[in-house]
Amino acid sequence: MPEPNEAFRSALDWSARAAQALQEVRARQLELKDGFASLAVAESRRQEALAARNVVGEDKMREGFAQQLV
Fold first, then answer.
1. CB crowding 8-33: b at 16 or more within 10 Å, else e
2. For position 52, what pLDDT does the model report?
3. How many helices (H) does the chain have, and how many strands (E)?
4. Residue 44 belongs to what domain range?
5. Alpha-carbon gap, residue 47 to 42, rounded angstroms
6. Tally of structural domains, the chain
7. Residue 63 in domain
8. Is 5 strand, coil or helix?
9. Within a domain: 57
10. Considering all CA atoms of the chain, what is the largest pairwise distance in Å, rounded to the nearest integer?
């Protein structure tokens, strides 16, 4: 079997580096998707809690205002 020439070795090295870079990109992409999903869930929970506090606050304010009228 003949010895591979320099161009073949260079192409093989480039191919290995490209495969490694692609693997890193895919790993980062998964991290970003997971992070974005976590962020969306956290924001949704924050907005729900904020809405719940506003509703509770409105009820208390209405009760206080009603007591002032009586």
1. eeeeeeeeeeeeeeeeeeeeeeeeee
2. 78
3. 1, 0
4. 29-70
5. 9
6. 1
7. yes
8. coil
9. yes
10. 102
